[in-house]
Amino acid sequence: MGGSRKAFQTLMVRIDTDQGLSGWGEVFTKNGELALKSVFDTHVAPVLIGRDATQIGAIRRDLEKLHHNFGRVGLMAFCVSAVDLALWDILGQAAGLPLYRLLGGATRSEVPLYASLTRYGDPRAVADTVERAVKEGYGAVKLHEVLVETVVSARAAAGREVALMLDTNCPWTLAEARRNARRMEPYDLAWLEEPTWPPENVHALAELRRSTTIPIAAGENAGSLADYRVMFEAGAVDIVQPDIAKAHGLSEALRIAALADAHNVQFMPHCFMIGPGYVHTLHLAAALEVPLLERYYVELAVEPLGESVKPRNGRVAVPQAPGLGCAPDPDAIRLYRVG
Ligand SMILES: [Mg+2]
What we know:
Layout: E1 11-16, E2 22-27, H1 33-48, H2 56-66, H3 75-95, H4 99-102, E3 110-116, H5 123-135, E4 140-144, H6 148-158, E5 163-167, H7 174-184, E6 189-193, H8 202-211, E7 216-218, H9 225-233, E8 239-240, H10 249-262, E9 266-267, H11 276-287, E10 293-296, E11 315-317, H12 330-336
Parallel strand pairs: 3-4, 3-10, 4-5, 5-6, 6-7, 7-8, 8-9
Antiparallel strand pairs: 1-2, 3-11
Helix pairs in contact: 1-3, 2-3, 5-6, 9-10
Magnesium ion binds at residues 167, 193-194, 220, 270.
């Protein structure tokens, strides 16, 4: 990968049962692994010991109610999410079914991916990377940029056929967002993601959405169903992007997806993970017929969950073995473990 980012830390969680099954989850980390591990070890793990691993709903409710004073968005929610994911993996293995079948089944054996680029801040570097991703077979590319010039150069590099999205990560006031959206309208963006600060101000998003032709996407920074209800009722988004490793797991994602459906909002989960959480999101995308799954566009020396879930020609195969259908490669963990 071009760009300067050489390190990416993530926190994986393994839950073992006395029946010999092990389930994997992933905590949304963003290099906060030490704080998250401490929260997990002191407040989450003790609640799990001795529980029936198939009682996902009860365990999740207990964790959420016990710890809600820590906040419904943030570190604790990330840890609860990872537990939910690991328990779904265990459930799939216990049932002898791949996760996507527990979630409703799928008609596709592969899911199309979009290449989610890191931030370059430079129109030339953005164009080069877009070109490379398109050559590798990606039919859709998302930039993480804030300069309108990068959108111009990305569109020139991508041609008219490739879907182009822009994620700005909450930089602007409503006035700035309006101005920039107007300048970007000629470049046919499939969506503009998180253009305003702060992310929970869904009314600013709603106002922007009414004033631009570019579809608005957001949702990776909300924590649970009630947040999404407020977002939908405000008319804030065309596309909603919950992260299953942040917003209370797969269980909550299913409820959010149903609510999105009722509000004619497209459900497109956020996924900036390369561990088990990526594969959980893959199963969810397969089962809910999500049109495109996000894939961090990065060259990895080792694919942490094995070669079978590595992107090929801008697509990824849906694992067919029970549960997640794959597990972190022990050699890769030994090689890259930092704590
Ligand atoms: Mg984003």
